[in-house]
Amino acid sequence: MKRAAACVFTLALVFAGFVGQARASTILLDLEDPAGQNLTPFTLNILAITPSTTVTFEGYQIPSFENVEDISLTTGGGPNLLGPTWTFTPAPFGSDTSTFDDGFGTGTIALSLGGVVEDSFDQYAQTVTTVVGQTYALHFLFSNPPSGPAELLVTTSGSASTAVPEPASLTLLGSGLVGLATRYARRRRKNAAV
């Protein structure tokens, strides 16, 4: 019986670890050296798994700038949840960035990401209130001139890409693991009684 309890406990830890990984920061998009794009549209679907979600844009472009414009986070065609103010974290090895009004009217300031050192990212983030289990669409237009090294990284925390199993699927997975452990314990008891 102790072994069955240990097995259930181990499976519970594995399951908790899997859920914990889904709650960590999720990379939605990683564009390395995306040369020659001009107002290329992107829509990234995310699933809220906590009551707040942080959306982060990180990037650099040497010797020019890459721009992220017309930025919105919506659900079901509703209003843009993102506001005009971003929390800025400068690149550790020199920052070359700015924000601007792109004229699209989303209410969110556009981002212009330059760079001083390759792989040294300027970072802009916003945290919004979300509904657990609700899917949101992050939309933006991306431009990058055909020059030097560049990268754009879009991440979220408090959410997962829709490719990660939804909470209902995780619950089914957990129930299946507990059922498997119970079956194992019954089989051991039956064999011990014989």
Structure description:
This protein has 194 residues and is of the alpha+beta class. The protein has one domain: Jelly Rolls, CATH 2.60.120. Helices cover 25% and strands 40% of the residues. The strands form two sheets. Strands 6-7-4-9-2-11 form a six-stranded antiparallel β-sheet, with no helix packed on it. A five-stranded antiparallel β-sheet has the order 1-10-3-8-5, with no helix packed on it. α1 packs antiparallel against α2. The longest helix has 27 residues, at 167-193. The radius of gyration is 22 Å and the shape is globular. Residues 1-23 and 163-178 have low confidence and may be disordered.
Provide a short characterization of the protein structure.
By secondary structure, this protein is α+β, with helices and mostly antiparallel strands. The chain has 2 helices and 11 strands, in the order αβββββββββββα.
